[in-house]
Design goal:
alpha/beta, Helicase, Ruva Protein, domain 3, 2 domains, two-stranded antiparallel sheet, 11 strands, about 35% helix
Length: about 280
């Protein structure tokens, strides 16, 4: 039998030695998961003794996390914009920057019953957040990956939003009909040659969700072009992009006759988002 606090400290030390970021936080999440508790509840039970029944499964979780498996995959869920979504190896793990993208999008005015399109929906966090926050919106979500779409549909069911979102398998906008007031996209933007050098946790994301082409902007440039035929007059395009891509993509938007082009920084001051109007 070992006290819970001792287990937390030993796990955090082990994670630190194996290069896990935020080792204590990771330890708390895994211990809480094994015990079926909320993380905050651990602070009231530091003296609780843990026996082999709890420690045996915890050792396996610890081994996998120290080997680089993402915490979100081990827990099976991720929090995003006040909601809990299922997440696994079928789609990109949602990042904090994408939550910031949602905050910016939701601040902008839209018609009372807007048509909204999420391109490259992945686990569905963008489409489902917009459906939940904009109850009169008609939301369509597309992805080229059938596995990602299956995960997005599962999340729609978890959140009771299945009737609100139309999911389509599509390579960008090839299977999309009609025009929209808002098109949002967090497409792959990492140059293909850089993927092997990414953090080991990121290596668990699907390559399809990471590889933006040789330069990294190819998919986004294709969307900028294709979106013109699917935006209503005055419709808006909102993009999450990679580091040092804003100037190139803003120039492409200008060339394609978008207006009100606006780069916006993320929490670290990186120009991570591009907003523009068409028509």
């Amino acid at each position: 039998m070992k006290p819970l606090l001792e287990v937390l400290r030993a796990t955090a030390d082990y994670f630190a030695r194996h290069g896990v970021e935020s080792p204590r936080l990771n330890a708390e999440h895994l211990v809480a998961h094994v015990l079926g508790k909320k993380r905050i509840e651990l602070y009231m039970e530091f003296d609780r003794p843990l026996g082999e029944r709890e420690l045996a499964p915890l050792r396996e979780w610890i081994r996998r996390r120290a080997a680089g498996e993402p915490l979100q995959h081990l827990l099976g869920t991720v929090e995003f914009h006040k909601r809990v979504f299922a997440t696994d190896a079928r789609a990109l793990i949602p990042r904090p920057e994408t939550e910031l993208l949602m905050e910016h999008v939701l601040k902008e005015p839209l018609p009372e019953s807007p048509r909204v399109l999420d391109v490259g929906t992945g686990s569905g966090v963008i489409a489902l957040t917009l459906a939940a926050e904009l109850p009169h919106a008609e939301v369509t979500a597309v992805d080229v990956s059938p596995d990602a779409l299956a995960l997005a549909r599962e999340n729609a069911g978890r959140l009771g939003l299945t009737p609100r979102v139309l999911f389509l398998q599509s390579n960008l906008l090839e299977a999309v009909d009609g025009a929209f007031d808002l098109i949002v996209a967090n497409l792959p933007y990492i140059p293909g040659g850089e993927i092997p050098g990414l953090a080991r946790e990121v290596q668990h994301d699907p390559v399809l969700a990471l590889d933006g082409g040789p330069v990294g902007t190819e998919l986004i440039e294709r969307l900028i072009d294709a979106a013109r035929a699917h935006l209503k007059p005055g419709g808006r395009l909102a993009l999450e992009i990679g580091i040092d891509q804003s100037a190139r993509l803003a120039a492409e938007m200008e060339r394609q006759n978008y207006r009100d082009i606006r780069p916006v920084p993320d929490y670290q001051g990186v120009l991570r988002f591009l907003f523009a109007t068409y028509g």
